[in-house]
Amino acid sequence: MLNRETLTEALSALPLYFFDFIDPAALEFTERVRWICRNECPMYGKTWACPPAVGTVDQCQSKCRKYSNCLMIASIAEVADISDIEETLATRPAHEALTNQVRDLMRGQGTEPYVLSTEACTHCQRCAWLDGQPCRFPEKMHPCVESHGINLLGLIEDYGLTFQYGENVVTWFSLLFFED
Q1: Phi and psi at residue 33, in whole multiples of 5°?
Q2: Which pTM value belongs to this model?
Q3: What angle do CA 111, 112, 113 make, to 5 degrees?
Q4: Distance between CA 171 and CA 153 in Å, rounded?
Q5: Are 134 and 122 in contact (CB under 8 A)?
Q6: pLDDT confidence tier of residue 52, bands split at 50, 70 and 90
Q7: Residue 78 contacts residue 172 (beta carbons within 8 Å)
Q8: Torsion from C-alpha of 50, 155, 15, 180, nearest 10 degrees
Q9: How close are the terminal C-alpha atoms of the chain, in Å?
Q10: Which DSSP state fits 82?
């Protein structure tokens, strides 16, 4: 059983910009976010971590809302030029490492979280989804938050957070759904 006090203490020692426990019912699931995946993301239809492999927005919402709790974490990274997409994306692995640390802390307390993060999954050179095969590393693969149609902007505003902290700061978010 997850001990929130112990977890909070461990989270406080990590270089997280923000973390808090949220009610999954507070999340907004919308086709507008999925539209961006479908029309603007080059990873759409290429991995198990992306639509349509993750399911419809309604299916994703059902999957996330079957959990009674969610931990939202965020990290920030500075870059020399926010418009340099390569430099910006190069900061993502550090956030993914933090997400995995948090996942492992939760696992260490006997809780198996369902993790949504920032990646389109790059663990394999060619995703098994393209060949109609199951994911080779489901324990490592974290679908991205947006793949599930989740719009975090309202929630971020509710917490008084800012998504953009200036022209040289990147903010990354992950959601870890779990049962107490």
Answers
A1: -70, -40
A2: 0.93
A3: 105
A4: 12
A5: no
A6: very high
A7: no
A8: -80
A9: 6
A10: T
